[in-house]
Structure formats: C-alpha cells, structure tokens
Design a protein that fits this description.
Blueprint (H helix, E strand, L loop, with lengths): L1 H25 L8 H13 L2 E2 H8 L3 H13 L3 E5 L7 E5 L1 H22 L4 H22 L19
Antiparallel strand pairs: 1-3, 2-3
Length: about 160
C-alpha cells in the first residue's frame, strides 16, 4: 500500500509542477526575462540586498550558474552588483529602478493570480491546503540532506549536488 501511495503522491506532485509551470509560461509579467532570471529577480527584490552566494543557495543553483543569470540581469539593467560592505570578497546584488518596477509588476500579477486560484478552494479546505503544503515542504527539507535513491534501484544513489 505504501508504494501505491508514494506513486500517487509522485503523480500528484508531477501534475502540480506542470500546472505551476504552465502558470509561469502564461504570465506576461516575465516576458522581458527568462524564467530563471524572473526567479532571481523576485528573490533579489524580496531580499532588497543579497549576496550572490545566498541567492544561489536560495534558488538552489551553483554559484557559476547564478552568476551568469545575474550577469544577464545586469546587462538588461534590472540589477547591479556591488562589493559587500561587510565582506570585500563578496558581491551583493540589488535591483535597479527598472528592476524594482518589474519586480513590483511581477509580485502584483502573481499575487492576483494566486488569489484567484486560492479563492477557488472551499473555505473549509483552505487550512487543509496550507497544512498539506507545509507538511510536503518539511518532508522535502528533511530529504535534502539524506541519501536518495534513483529509479527505485536501492543500489544506485542519486547525485545530491546542485546543478
């Protein structure tokens, strides 16, 4: 029974990922940037000021990939880099005025979109949804540092490194 439940869970998560992916592709608020750049821009905007290392960790990318993503945002004049005030070896990233305008637009449109989705859920089920999502996030966080296995084959460990 547990295998059936884990397979159903996997299928539901896969469907959720696809639905959320479709939401992102349909959103006109990120047309000026790629989806990866959009995620970075939102996290920078929410943090106000963030190191490249912290941004990479937050988005779960290696620093070189994150650096290229930030470089492209710098070229488009959405963010700027500056030497950290606390660690001269570190680079901090902030939004430009143009980046702040795009960030606020993205946040507003996504808040409206998810409000619309959330309002489709019956009031009595909304707490259950929050609780269920928190349980899934907690389980994912606990699993991040544990040994993972690929393809149901317990003799082959997954690579847990960030890509």
């Amino acid at each position: 029974m547990n295998e059936l439940n884990s397979k159903n869970f996997r299928e539901l998560i896969r469907m959720l990922e696809r639905k959320l992916g479709l939401l992102n592709k349909q959103d006109s608020c990120c047309l000026e940037v790629s989806l990866a750049q959009c995620h970075a821009l939102v996290e920078i905007g929410r943090a106000k000021n963030i190191s490249l290392k912290d941004l990479a960790n937050l988005i779960n990318l290696d620093i070189s990939t994150m650096s290229r993503t930030v470089d492209s945002l710098v070229k488009k004049d959405f963010v700027f880099r500056m030497t950290s005030e606390t660690d001269r070896r570190s680079v901090d990233i902030k939004l430009t005025e143009k980046g702040l305008i795009l960030f606020n637009d993205i946040e507003s449109k996504m808040n409206d979109k998810f409000k619309s989705i959330f309002n489709q859920i019956a009031l009595e089920d909304q707490i259950t949804v929050f609780k269920g999502l928190n349980i899934i996030i907690d389980a994912l966080e606990k699993n991040e540092n544990s040994s993972e296995f690929c393809n149901g084959n317990s003799s082959t460990k997954c690579n847990n490194t960030k890509k």
